[in-house]
Design a protein that fits this description.
With 152 residues, the chain is mainly α. It has 6 helices and 2 strands; from the N terminus they run E-H-H-H-E-H-H-H.
């Protein structure tokens, strides 16, 4: 079994998920209020709906990958940075095919899945979530040998 994992900037991912929930009418809280309430909301909904309001928690990639690497050999994983995929689609898709030992497919660039946001993330919101995820991003850099300065 092989795993292809794409990781997006966890701050952008959290804000995007919050925006999606707002657009769907599911999230009544402002972004930082939702982040602050996340732990209690997850606890209250466990085990049924852990994903609905887990904006920051789902971006703790190092923790998730460490758990996966304990269960499966690291060589079975191809981990891709989403931002890298966005700028180098052809090369990334070719790398995925090589990893899966498949013949290259005919490549066609895809459009980004961009949903209009209710609003843009504010600097103070980005800074607050960055601080929450600082340790996990550092662990991820060490785990994968990545430079995630663009996420910080």
């Amino acid at each position: 079994m092989k795993f292809v994992v794409i990781l997006r900037n966890p701050i952008e991912r959290a804000f995007s998920q919050w925006n999606m929930q707002r657009t769907r009418g599911i999230e009544p809280c402002d972004f930082l209020d939702a982040v602050a309430a996340e732990a209690s909301r997850i606890a209250a909904s466990a085990p049924k709906q852990l994903r609905k309001f887990s904006y920051v928690d789902r971006g703790r990639y190092a923790e998730q990958l460490e758990r996966a690497f304990r269960l499966f050999p690291r060589e079975q994983f191809l981990v891709i940075k989403y931002e890298e995929f966005r700028v180098r689609q052809r090369e990334t898709v070719e790398a995925v095919f090589r990893f899966l030992n498949l013949s290259p497919a005919r490549f066609r660039a895809v459009e980004a899945h961009d949903i209009p946001y209710v609003r843009k993330i504010r600097d103070e919101e980005r800074a607050a979530v960055r601080e929450i995820l600082r340790s996990d991003i550092g662990r991820l850099e060490a785990l994968l040998g990545w430079d995630c300065c663009d996420w910080r």
